Amino acid sequence: MALPPQDERTLPAVVLQDLDRRPLEHALAELQSLVDQHGHVIVVCSQALPESVERRLHTVRALLETDRIALFRPPLPPLGLAVLARQLRQLASCDLSPGVLASAGRLLTHYIHAGALLGSVARLDHVPVGLKSHARSWMPGSQFGVVAHPVPQLVRIGPEAALDGPEFGTWLLVAKGQLPSDWVAGTLAPSWRVQGLREMPLPAESPGWWGTGKVTEFCAYLPDLSVLYQLVTSVRQSTCHWCGIDVIGDRCVFCSATPPVYDTTPALPGARRDAALGHRRERRALTG
């Protein structure tokens, strides 16, 4: 799902549709065209997608023999994933290198609080569900508030129901499904002290991700480009020792290389003495 621009600087998104169903040469041509046009491509995709999609992406990148395509699959539900992709589109208008921009996805994921109001948790796989909650999900009229990221939470909706939210100022994006969103707008939003609320259509993948069509999905996020830019640029940058691109974090998102580990442990006194004795014995053997 490609969300509409947050501001006039937000770059447009390209939606790669049916990658695993179209002929391979079509996917190759599309990705090659994007690389030729933009220089680097960051592919943000859901972990809920079929494995065939991920295999196709890795196949395309291997056949193109390029390290200019970054594949990023954060552990976010569909609406949270769409929000993260838009934040990266916002940052793409700034003076960030491709490696830093792609690495920013991992950093910004920590500042996204994503959840949903559900009519049933019987088929919910992404958040731990206790036996009591599972049994209550079969009762008519039951509703549950769930946070999938950053820390899993699940409560049955009632007068005292509450979910822990972000400790910083955010906006709330709400996507209505086949469930009224009164609790989200009337209870959750005030308790999370959101600075504003916007509504969007429900992503097509949401019912499958949450295990029910009775869902209203929500996501608290940082909307301000200046705040996002400050977060990213405040992190120390380094150069990937393998492909030479600038990154933040401990793994290059383009070539997947991690910093080399050097053994800096000092030798023990006994080990140094044994090594010296060995060298003296070796010299005596050579001269004797």
Summed over residues and divided by their number, the pLDDT gives a mean of: 86
Low-confidence stretches: 271-288
Number of domains: 2
Evaluate the radius of gyration: 25 Å
Number of alpha- plus pi-helical segments: 9
Per DSSP E runs of 2 or more residues, the count of β-strands stands at 10
Order of helices and strands: HEHEHHEHEEEHEHEHEEH
Largest sheet: 6 strands, mixed
Describe the fold and architecture.
The chain has 288 residues and is α+β, with helices and mostly antiparallel strands. It has two domains: 24-111 and 225-248, no CATH class; 113-221, Hypothetical Protein Tm841, Chain: A,domain 3 (2-Layer Sandwich), CATH 3.30.1180. Helix content is 36%, strand content 17%. The chain is built from nine helices and ten strands. It has helices spanning 24-38, 51-64, 78-91, 98-109, 131-136, 182-191, 206-210, 225-233, 269-287; strands at residues 41-44, 69-72, 113-118, 144-149, 153-156, 171-176, 197-201, 215-221, 237-239, 246-248. A six-stranded mixed β-sheet has the order 5-4-3-8-6-7, sandwiched between helices. A two-stranded parallel sheet has the order 1-2. Helix 2 links the parallel strand 1 and strand 2. The longest helix is centred in the C-terminal third of the chain and has 19 residues, at 269-287. It is globular and about 55 Å long. Mean pLDDT is 86; it is low at 271-288.
